Amino acid sequence: MDETVAEYIRRTVLKIPRDEIKTMLQKWGFLSEMQLQTVNFHQLKENISQDVVQLCEENSADIKQAAVLDIIYNHIYPNKRMWSVYQMNKTGEEIEFFDFTDFKKKFKRRLRSALKNVTINFREYEDNAIWIRIAWGTPYTKPNQYKTSYVVYHSQTPYVFLSASVLRSNLPLLCQALVVASNYHDIREVELRSHSLNSLKDIVFKRYSQNFQTYCPRPLSERKVAPESADVRIIQENRNEKERIQRVNREVFGDGPQPKLEFAQYKLETMFKSDPKMDVMYKKEPFRCLVKFSSPHLLESLKSLAPVGMADAPLSPLLTCIPHKARNYFKIREKKGFFPESFVSP
Amino acid sequence: MESVEGAARTLPSIGRLSRGPPFGRAQGRFGLSPSGRLLPPAPRSQENVDPQQTAFLLRKQWTLYSVTPLYRFSGARLRDYGRLLGAFIAAEKQKGLAVEVGVELDIKVAVSSLPDLRGSDQDQAAVLVQLSSRSSASRKNSEEKLLWSGWFCCVSGDDLSERVPEDFTCLPLFLANGAESYTSIVGSWFQKTFDCCFRRLAISPLNLSWMAAMWTGCKVDKTASALELVFSVPSLPQPLDILYAIHPEDAKDLWDTVQKTPGEITQEEVDVFMDCLYSHFHRHFKIRLSATKLVKVSTAIASAHCDGFIKFLQSQYLTGVLMLLTELAISQIQ
């Protein structure tokens, strides 16, 4: 077995949390159950990985098999990578039957025609998601297994989720191969990025709970705004306002859990307008700024601002439109014409 | 240590100010928000500070401390102090308080003076302490690596130095760069030797807004970088950080329309400037930035963080920023 393959397998196993190693190797299926029995999965990870490499040596593993283990790891832990969203377009409404074999053939052929040194692996999952792993080389060097791009393509949709690696120069080629293989015409990047692959899918496939009015809302009396204190003498001031904020928040954000995004970025090129009381004259050109919101769970964070008094309710549509518009990068310019107060995102 | 006697505070005389660097001295009592800061019209650049000498201070992150006056410190004995500190560090290492585990390091200590870093002749010249390592394995042809730097300074600290008895030296601001363990050892030695006290210097959101306003108004030769403000809302179930970056020309234009009194910046002007930025933000996002915590301000001049970190980016404004920081350090000591 090639020593680079051995090292690659060793490092991949080391990434896996110790309690998960056995299950993942079973999913991989490259080592037999009998072989797995011989490994002590309670020892130090360094030793486990050495034992695994030893067994792979016995089975003469090659890079393609090692790559499959990597796909399995990334499928279970996708949040370690940053994912971008792309959408493909085609003219015409023909609903073609998706032929996986044909897709693979065309994809490989297109990539390899431009770049011989690539490792390409496919794996299909139950939810019609096709995972593609690509390790990139150059015309003169072998593929670098540590610099991989991942593509997740839901064949029933025009959406592709991409975790490109450092080599952005390979991106056009990758996009081209996808378009050709899937019989679309072109592909464009959607301004939406996150570590949480599932949340991106939720947003794009509209799987999060939206604020549909058809949902039967529980009457307000059932939903307590704050725990009632036992002492009847303590009354809540601003109860109406608090309830209004809760209601408006629910309308705008929906009831269910929000998709998990880490940031939203706005490039603002709107006119500066101050409070007339402040007596500040300002120029006629746009006031250029960049605003970036970051949080471990941005939408939940924004949802909690109004109830604590840090924001008005309803919150600005610039923020609440993020899931509907399926984007977290915006460029906001002043809309000219009838409504100088409103904003347009191009 | 004897406490500093509180004498009547005098306002700085105008004569001294006209020599000073571009950032004004605070009028009014320390510890409260200054009602205004005076500014002379043009920035003092190369006359005070040799950019070559101080280039190594730029673009590094410095941790800020306030230091109470040093008892029986002499600017003429810096070499001696270097030796004594070196011996102290070696002794600490012997005791097993290893600063770097598993590495055999000879630590060389250099204590020197930075005479240009001061506001006026009344100020004590800045004192620089540097710890370098020389690997004891190959003593002959090894390179010295700078491990840690720290410097004491006082820029326009007359309000403190005027009120302090003879035996005390005022160097209220201390800046450190390098491993915390070294800062701790050096700090302990100074505390023991000069009977002083180090405290981390935090920068309040109020003072950060001052810095944002003042630094936005400064002229810079090269293309300026954006005015960046970072706000934090840690107390939410999911914490939120907001970066608000304004194009430097637009920020300066806004400040220029707000800043009306020539030669002086007032609290009111700073408030109006910040309120303008907050209201522009609110118009778009309906979020009240004034209810959040301003934690970091960054401009082409310098960047400052509320936990007491500073980065100097322009040598021509170095003493100006130091003057502001000296003021903050002094107000923490009182």
TrEMBL record, chain A:
Q: Which residues form a coiled coil?
A: none
Please state where this protein is localized.
Chromosome, Centromere; Nucleus
Query: What does UniProt give as GO cellular component?
Result: chromosome, centromeric region; nucleoplasm
Keywords on record: Centromere, Chromosome, Nucleus
Of which family is this protein a member?
Belongs to the CENP-N/CHL4 family.
* Cited PANTHER family: CENTROMERE PROTEIN N
Q: What is this protein called?
A: Centromere protein N
Q: Which species expresses this protein natively? A: Opisthocomus hoazin (Hoatzin)
